[in-house]
Structures are given as structure tokens and as C-alpha cells.
Design brief:
heterodimer; A: alpha/beta; 7-stranded mixed sheet; 4 helices; 25% helix; globular; B: alpha/beta; 5-stranded mixed sheet; 11 helices
Chain lengths: 150, 339
């Protein structure tokens, strides 16, 4: 089962992500796929707002991981730079922690990802418009998608 | 006359393995940098796995060389300063552990330095700092405006809300099929361009000192995308020039406005993107016109190095801000004042 949502602006992306954040529990894992400029960081900023994180959430491309504290802890990964690499920076430990994890360009670390997760794909429809596809794997994530009432 | 202070600096937060001996926080005795840019070129970016392995291979050699060039016996050192964060976790760990081992073996104090504080203090190796001071730190991982009332006092008054400037440069360079690192190639193309595409200037809300480069990156991608759909040829130089013009205008504008509002006595730029010719010329011209002293360290001190870590570490050492053997690499370390 997949869910599709059309979003007309970056603001709508942020609002949807913040709504999703309300449904998250410790240890949840979201993966984000989408081309450069699709809005993966925008989505994560919305999610962080929903998690009541006050600090500036900006691109973790350079350091691969940035960590934040709010209602829940958030691990924001961008593994863009792990393409052509099989480095394990200790993913297991991060994914089994109490923090919510968001992974941009998750396919570059496929081998280290737990099976159960919420896969989110952002596709560019127009300059502002995006199509968001949610693919829940596992009961926990199917429940989140149902609760989103899409 | 106070005794001279000699600090060994170690830096491994990204792709340079570096060690340096600095005297009194102002004088470089030795400065050794082993860069990995060559080995990252074929992947179009830093590969952290390779970065960590290179650091492991290089770190003891680099430290030994720094000590040898400085003709410095470990027992004559006063402390070891190391980049504690932010950076790549695997890379930071190697520097931190080398520093801990060295400090423990030679019974020296250990000082953990924030990478950005290091970039700012690089300036002190060439030019004494004058406060209040404004620092523009602009690199692959950072774009920040930092106000300093005095040594060790940092207030971040603006930062990027999305991509760092250098990251935007690398990503735009990648879409233009330019080699890594992309910044110098865009700079060079922009310099030689006879025309520039007009891209938006992202100023954000009035009065904000924050930056945003993601929207500019998207504009460039949209431009390329639209041209491809119409089957038009894109002139990479025109795109490079348009992109660079937008970055330079916004960065210069915000830095200038902050310098005036905070009435600083000195403005310094630091970080790899500070080496960009277009940005450098624009900042120099703007501050010259306003009569505000403006400095950019020479290129080897703009990019990552360990002398800057030793320079910042010297002041922390003087303040007695020592770390413990429990020190760890902190990938997301925030910039905090030392006071």
C-alpha cells in the first residue's frame, strides 16, 4: 500500500511533515528520496518544527549527521556523500536508539537500514509543486499512514 | 616577560590530516597538511570511509613531521589542542584519539577546539584581532556570521537555513559537470564569462542575517531543466557567473550591514569559500569604501589546517579550559563562548 499526496508549495511540504511529526514515537525511522532540490531538507525542517526543535535545522550533507533535541531527539542524516562507499558510521546504534531518524538519500546505505521504516519519495512536478509518496513497511508505519488520514 | 607557550594543534574534521606547532597563539613554527582532495576527485566529493582510512594512515606521520620541522621535543610543549567538532564523526575520532594518546603519553593538558573557532583564530596568525569583531565563516559545511566582543566570546548572528555556501557551489558544479571541488571551477568560469544568467538574490526577511542557498540552487536546477526541455544549449560560464553573482551580492550585503549595525572594529573572513576570488574582491572593495578594516587569511590558512586549531587552543589553554580523557568527537558540536 502506498499513499500519494500532491503538495503545491514548500510551505505545504513543511505543514505535512509537521503533522507527521505529531504521530512519531521514539525510534521511528523515515527515509527520504528525491533529486537535488526536491525538498528533502524542507521536509525535515517541517518535521523538526513538529517535534518542537528550536535550533536551526540545516543541511547535514557536509557532516552526514546532525542531531537535535525537541519533544523527541532527532537524527538527521544525509548520506549523499556515502555513494560508492560501504562505510558503517555506526548506523545500528543510531537506528536502535530512542531518537527519530530521518535519512536523506537512504538508498546509499540500504545494507544498514532496518527493514521496517516509512519510505518517503519526493518527486518534482513543477517549480513549486511536488508529489509525495509514502510507502510504509511494517505495522507500525502502516498505522502512522492511516492516522495521517490522507 | 612571560614564558612562551607552545601548542601542538591537530585537525582531522574532514579531508585534511593536519598537525602544527604554534608559539603564543600567533606564530606558526610548523604547519603540516596532508590533503586527500586528489583521492576524492574521482568520486565527486569527500568519501568519509576513505577520509577515515587516510586519517589513520597519516596522523602519526603528520604529527611527527610537525614536531620535527618545529624542532620540538614533546616535553617542551605546553598542551595539545584538537578539533573536537563539528565534522565527520569517523574523521574527528582519529584526531581526538591521537591527541588523547599524545597528551596522556607526555602528560600534557588536552584542549578541545571548535572547528569554527579555529577558522576565526587563523586570522591571528597573520594579523592581531581587534574587538568588537565580525567573522564571516564560509566553507563547504558552514555559512555563519559571528560577532565577538572579546576573545572567546561568540554570538552567531546569522547562519544558513539550508545548504552551506560551499555545498551549493559543489552541487551547482556537479550539475554543470565540473570536477570536484567545484568552487574554484565556478569561480574561474564566472571570472571569464562575458554574460551572466540572472538568478534571484535570497535576502530572507528584512533585517535577517541568516542565509539561504537552497532556493538559489533550485533556481539553477530549474534553469538547466527548462533549457534541456526546450532543447537549448546552456553556456556553463553564464550559469556559473549568474550563480556566483547572486552568492557574492548577498554575502557581501549581509556582512556589510552586520559590520555597520554592530559597529565592529575589524571584519575577518575565514573558511574555504573565503578563497573565492569573486567574493574576496567584492568584500575587499565594499569594506575599503566604508573604511572598515577587513582581512582574509592567506589561502593555506583559509582552508582546513591545524595551526588555526593551535591558535584558538592557545587562548583556551591560557584560560585553563582543559578537556578530559573522556573527550569524544562531536559531529554536531555547537559554537559556545569560552567565558
Amino acid at each position: 500500500m502506498t499513499y500519494t499526496i500532491i503538495l503545491n508549495s514548500p510551505e505545504e511540504t513543511e505543514v505535512l511533515a509537521a503533522t507527521l511529526a505529531d504521530l512519531l514515537e521514539p525510534g521511528d525511522l523515515l527515509t527520504l528520496e528525491g533529486d537535488l532540490g526536491a525538498g528533502k531538507t524542507t521536509f525535515t525542517k517541517g518535521l523538526a518544527k513538529g517535534l518542537e526543535i528550536q535550533r536551526m535545522v540545516n543541511s547535514p550533507t557536509f557532516t552526514i549527521l546532525k542531531q537535535y533535541s525537541g519533544r523527541l531527539e532527532l537524527n538527521h542524516f544525509d548520506v549523499y556523500r556515502l555513494e560508492n562507499s560501504d562505510e558503517d558510521i555506526g548506523f545500528d546504534e543510531f537506528f536502535s536508539s530512542e531518537a527519530v531518524s530521518v535519512v536523506e538519500w537512504a538508498r546509499f546505505i540500504e545494507d544498514y537500514l532496518p527493514k521496517e521504516r516509512l519510505e518517503i519519495t519526493i518527486n518534482r512536478q513543477s517549480e513549486q509543486g511536488r508529489k509525495l509518496t509514502l510507502h510504509p513497511i511494517g505495522r507500525r508505519y502502516e498505522k502512522i499512514c492511516r492516522e495521517l488520514n490522507l | 616577560m612571560n614564558k612562551d607557550i607552545y601548542i601542538l594543534g591537530i585537525e582531522t574534521s574532514c579531508d585534511e590530516t593536519a598537525a602544527s606547532v604554534v608559539k603564543n597563539g600567533t606564530e606558526i613554527i610548523s604547519n603540516v597538511v596532508a590533503s586527500q582532495i586528489e583521492s576524492h576527485k574521482r568520486f565527486g566529493g569527500v568519501v568519509p570511509e576513505i577520509a577515515s582510512r587516510h586519517h589513520v594512515e597519516q596522523i602519526t606521520l603528520v604529527i611527527e613531521e610537525a614536531l620535527q620541522l618545529a624542532n620540538m621535543e614533546p616535553h617542551r610543549l605546553d598542551a595539545v589542542a584538537v578539533t573536537e567538532g563539528p565534522g565527520l564523526v569517523g574523521a574527528l575520532l582519529i584526531g581526538v584519539n591521537a591527541a588523547k594518546a599524545f597528551a596522556f603519553a607526555h602528560q600534557l593538558p588536552l584542549v578541545g577546539v571548535h572547528h569554527i573557532a579555529g577558522h576565526i583564530y587563523a586570522n591571528r596568525l597573520e594579523q592581531e584581532m581587534e574587538f568588537p569583531l565580525l567573522a564571516l565563516v564560509i566553507s563547504g559545511g558552514h555559512t555563519e556570521l559571528i560577532y565577538m566582543k572579546e576573545h572567546g566570546d561568540f554570538t552567531v548572528i546569522g547562519e544558513t537555513r539550508d545548504d552551506a555556501a560551499g555545498e551549493a557551489y559543489d552541487k551547482v558544479a556537479r550539475t554543470l559537470n565540473l570536477p570536484y571541488p567545484g568552487g574554484p571551477h565556478i569561480d574561474r568560469l564566472a571570472h571569464a564569462a562575458d554574460k551572466a544568467v540572472t538568478f534571484p538574490r535570497i535576502w530572507l526577511e528584512e533585517g535577517s542575517y541568516d542565509f539561504s542557498f537552497s532556493g538559489l540552487k533550485s533556481s539553477v536546477l530549474n534553469y538547466m531543466h527548462n533549457a534541456a526541455q526546450r532543447g537549448e544549449e546552456v553556456a556553463p560560464a553564464h550559469v556559473a557567473a549568474g550563480f556566483q553573482n547572486s552568492v557574492v551580492e548577498v554575502v557581501t550585503g549581509k556582512t556589510m550591514r552586520a559590520a555597520e549595525e554592530y559597529e565592529v572594529r575589524q571584519v575577518i573572513a575565514a573558511g574555504g569559500v573565503a578563497a573565492n576570488k569573486g567574493l574576496r574582491h567584492s568584500l575587499e572593495a565594499a569594506f575599503k569604501a566604508k573604511g572598515i578594516p577587513f582581512y582574509i587569511p592567506s589561502l593555506p590558512l583559509c582552508t582546513d589546517n591545524a595551526a588555526m586549531i593551535a591558535a584558538a587552543g592557545t587562548i583556551m589553554y591560557e584560560k585553563g579550559l582543559y578537556g578530559t580523557m573522556a573527550m569524544n568527537g562531536r559531529p554536531g558540536m555547537p559554537l559556545m563562548s569560552w567565558i
